[in-house]
Amino acid sequence: MTDDQIGITPRVARILMSEEAIYGLILVSGMIVVSGVSVGTSVNALVTVLLTVIVFYLAHVYAGTLGRLAATDGHAGLRASLASSAKQSSGMLVASAPPLLALLLGSVGVLDDYVAIWSALIIDTVLLGVLGWFAVARWSTSLLPRVTGAVLTAAFGGVLILLKAFITH
């Protein structure tokens, strides 16, 4: 299945099929696990995860800007380097939105805290699998590599779900 067949624009595909998007989802899962250890509420998880994602995004933008400036001996210019780095790192913000939405629903009482936190972890893991599938599908039409990519990518979230299960029980 191609990006066109599922209605993904090239810009959205670039954002979602990035290392930053996958890294952002793994970061979100890890922060949910850690935030749930101390208090265990969806509000606590939402605030912890949101602030952490923003800080990591800004750190990625900063590091990317410095890297671009260093690689071009400053010829790329500060504004262009900053814009390019912000665009490159945007996958971290976009990919973290669905699990953050689950935590927000728990924070406002639409979902129980327990359900919101576990839903965010499951959404995260499913998204990792989907991103793994489509990333591999960009270079392979074979089923086995696609399934392997999906399973391996989702496994990062799965390991964190297991960690959460062992920490809270």
Describe the structure in your own words.
By secondary structure, the chain is mainly alpha-helical. 84% of the residues lie in helices and 0% in strands. It has 7 helices and no strands.
Supply database-style keywords:
169 residues; mainly alpha
Q: Would you report the number of β strands?
A: 0
Alpha-carbon Rg, integer: 17 Å
Poorly predicted regions = none
Query: So what's the overall shape?
Result: globular
Tally of DSSP helical segments:
7
Strand content: under 5%
* Helix and strand run: HHHHHHH
Helix content: over 70%
Name the average pLDDT.
86
Q: What profile does the largest beta sheet have?
A: none
Cα distance spanning the termini: 41 Å
- Based on helices, strands and strand pairing, what is the structural class? mainly alpha
Kindly summarize this structure in a few lines.
The protein is an all-alpha fold and 169 residues long. 84% of the residues lie in helices and 0% in strands. α3 packs across α5 and α5 crosses α6.
Secondary structure topology:
Layout: H1 3-6, H2 10-16, H3 19-38, H4 42-71, H5 78-107, H6 113-137, H7 143-168
